[in-house]
Amino acid sequence: MAKSSAPSRDRIVAGAADLISRRGLNAASIREVAKHAEAPLGSTYHYFPEGKQQLATEAVRYAGTAVAGILRKELDAGPIAGLRAFLALWRGIVVESDFRAGCPVLAVSVEEPPADELPPALVAAAEAFQEWERLLVETLCAHGADPEQAPGLAALIVASVEGAIAMSRAERSMRPLDRVAQQLEALIVGAVGRPD
């Protein structure tokens, strides 16, 4: 039986997410993505006939969904457990890449879009951040946080972790992420009145 073509497409999307997390969107060409994903260039164009923006959008959605899945699972144990899992995910990516990779969602978000359009990859990035925040808000509220303050705390968590990832890469040290983790845990405990 012939193998499904899905693994090749999935490999390309995952490879694109990884390459974008390392180099940013503008520096990641279709050719480089194919090479990074160890996929034929023709397959890349076959699966993504609209080109780089289509591939980037899929890569951002892939990364956003993967992170949301981890958050969703870990947040069942409470907001502190979810935060720790969120931090552990990024710590692993940054350390295992020797500070070369960060968050592909952030990487797409900080690049200047064309003046005359809103790229779908940027829209996908906004949707990913919103989903992470929504999951955090739900858990914070379920564990006793004030529903009016929970959205601000969730935004602070996502923004702080994303910024700490960038700082850790720049400093080639996990110290910024560790400091942010400590402060965010204290804020969560203050908001819910107990660790979990």
From TrEMBL:
Pfam annotation, one family: TetR_N
Organism: Streptomyces shaanxiensis
DNA-binding region ranges: 29-48
All copies of domain HTH tetR-type, residue ranges: 6-66
Lineage: Bacteria, Bacillati, Actinomycetota, Actinomycetes, Kitasatosporales
Glycoprotein keyword on record: no
Keyword presence, Transcription regulation: yes
UniProt protein name: TetR/AcrR family transcriptional regulator
UniProt keyword list: DNA-binding, Transcription, Transcription regulation
Matching InterPro entries: Homeodomain-like_sf, HTH_TetR, Tet_transcr_reg_TetR-rel_C_sf, YxaF_TetR_C
Superkingdom of the organism of origin: Bacteria
First and last residue of the signal peptide: none
